[in-house]
Amino acid sequence: MELSPNNSVQNTLFQKIEQVRRRQGKVRDTHINLAHGSGGKAMRDLIDDIFVNNFDNPILSQLEDQATFNLASLLQHGDRLAFTTDSYVVDPLFFPGSDIGELAINGTINDLAVSGAKPLYLTCSVILEEGLPVETLRRVAVSMKTAAQKAGVQIVTGDTKVVHRGAADKLFINTAGIGIIPAGVAISAHNIQPGDVVIINGELGNHGAAILIARGELALETNIQSDCQPLHDLVETILKVCPQVHAMRDATRGGLATVLNEFALTSNVGIRLNDQSLPIREEVKGVCEILGLDPLYLANEGKLVVVVSAENANTVLSAMKSHPAGKDACIIGEVIPSPQGIVLLKTTFGAERILDMLVGDQLPRIC
Q1: Coil, helix or strand for 270?
Q2: Number of CB atoms found within 10 A of residue 309's CB
Q3: Given CA atoms 314, 319, 320, 324 in this order, what sign does their dihedral have?
Q4: What DSSP character marks residue 133?
Q5: Quick check: helix, strand or coil at residue 20?
Q6: How far apart are CA 183 and CA 127, in angstroms?
Q7: For a Cys-Cys bond, which of 67, 75, 246, 301 suits 156, CB 3.0-4.6 Å?
Q8: In this structure, are 136 and 37 located in the same domain?
Q9: The pTM is what?
């Protein structure tokens, strides 16, 4: 007998098929294979199980090729859009104090935060090497979920690609982020003027030293941990007491020295640091001495360089110290009229030396 479209048996069959197709997928494989990037069921199961399951929110759950937002709701936070992108290739994937997943979230948030923006939405694209343990990817995704929830941002869209074994190294992450800058906030290195004060929110070089130790190439045992943390809440605290911050930047690759050189070149001023004021742990200094490195060039993932007028410096410093991410904040230098484009370091002996921009790479794949 031929079933008609209204036949109850046929309708029941269609309902069961629909239920199965709507059911969230589950990864059965223990390791990533090329099928996980093919665009078929294996890929859908991977996305459902690892990413949608962890990053779930109303925008992501639409599973469209893009995330869409209501412009009116964005304008409630400010009058300008901040947009950034970054990629993460850190080796190893897991290191003391953090991992590549948390690093990707916090690093993107911080790039938005230093403009004064309130971070709102992130994307996540992953490039997976064939053979990567699925449990490793799951662990990274959970870390990203936790970091995003802690920071109050949403991961709203993304992409997954799989490459042949040896064509990548385990796992690379690309992110993008958008945030909204409040009206009246105009942070830029172009604002820096002679007489300004330079402030840092804590110890320098911890992330770079932690990565170096985690690679296991040195027979060293330390308790150094990465300083990976989101900085947007600290920035908000600063802007509440001083909306007229001249410049801010997170000191990641190239470290403090490179950031200050960029400031000096952009604003055509000089910057003088006081060596005795720089907050660097003795363990970090020791690692650098053994390897011939300079901690002022080591990467950080939770350090904020702030430049403000001298009259606002103590107010900003007090506000920073009141926040957990800035409890060790201190004044480390001043902006001077000349030599233009040059950063000077005043040593313990009273002499001055030029602190140039990083040449080459002290430590590759740091973030």
Answers
A1: strand
A2: 18
A3: positive
A4: B
A5: helix
A6: 37
A7: 67
A8: yes
A9: 0.92
